[in-house]
Amino acid sequence: MHYWGVWHGAEPFEAYERNPTRFMSEYGFQSFPELKTIQTFAPEHYSLQFARAQDYVGFYEEERKLRRALLYPPSVSLVNIVIEGDSMADASRDARRAADVLKRELADGVRVLGPAFAVKSKVAGRYRTQILIKLRRDRHALVRRRIRTLLEDEALARVTSVDIDPLTLS
């Protein structure tokens, strides 16, 4: 059941208990939580404290510190490498091979994460894995050269896409 009242935050999640049906779709459970829910779950969270105080500069400074410490953009660049295959075993095998090479040959100022199942792990009948690289901005040339060398393997190049500073990781 698509319960749009809950979906759009007009009614609490408990409204499903008052309106039982024989079938309930998962789509009714994917809405964003209401602000009221977030505020009661983590009222001490720095973002809520800064919002309450209307302290945009303080929020920016705190967020910048955290992003730098956790190696999140914009303090670092991201490279998302998606490797596809006819089966998850094929995609995983190729991704492991690529990740092993990248981890071995990229060091200072570069973190290679994965491989892992892609956010959208199957698209148009193709299975997808991904490798995420976090790097300092001064390491772009090194990473680009290494990826170019890796993609000299034509079989790997045919199933690989590379997105530098991606807007999403899907």
Structural topology:
Layout: H1 4-7, H2 15-18, H3 35-41, H4 46-53, H5 56-69, E1 77-85, H6 88-105, E2 110-123, E3 126-135, H7 140-150, H8 154-158, E4 160-164
Antiparallel strand pairs: 1-3, 1-4, 2-3
* Number of distinct beta strands: 4
Coarse shape: flat
Q: Any idea what the CATH superfamily of the largest domain is called?
A: Ribosomal protein S6/Translation elongation factor EF1B
The CATH topology name of the largest domain reads Alpha-Beta Plaits
Helix fraction? 40-55%
Q: Strand pairing plus helix content: what structural class?
A: alpha+beta
Poorly predicted sequence stretches spanning 5 or more consecutive residues: none
**How many domains make up the 3D coordinates?**
2
Roughly how many Å apart are the termini? Answer: 27 Å
Q: Give the name of the CATH architecture of the largest domain.
A: 2-Layer Sandwich
Largest beta-sheet characterization: 4 strands, antiparallel
What's the rounded overall pLDDT mean? 85
The CATH class of the largest domain, by name, is Alpha Beta
Determine the number of helices (DSSP H or I, runs of at least 4 residues): 8
What is the chain-wise order of helices and strands?
HHHHHEHEEHHE
Give me the Rg, rounded.
21 Å
State which percent range the strand residues make up: 15-25%
Q: How do the strands of the widest beta sheet line up side by side?
A: 2-3-1-4
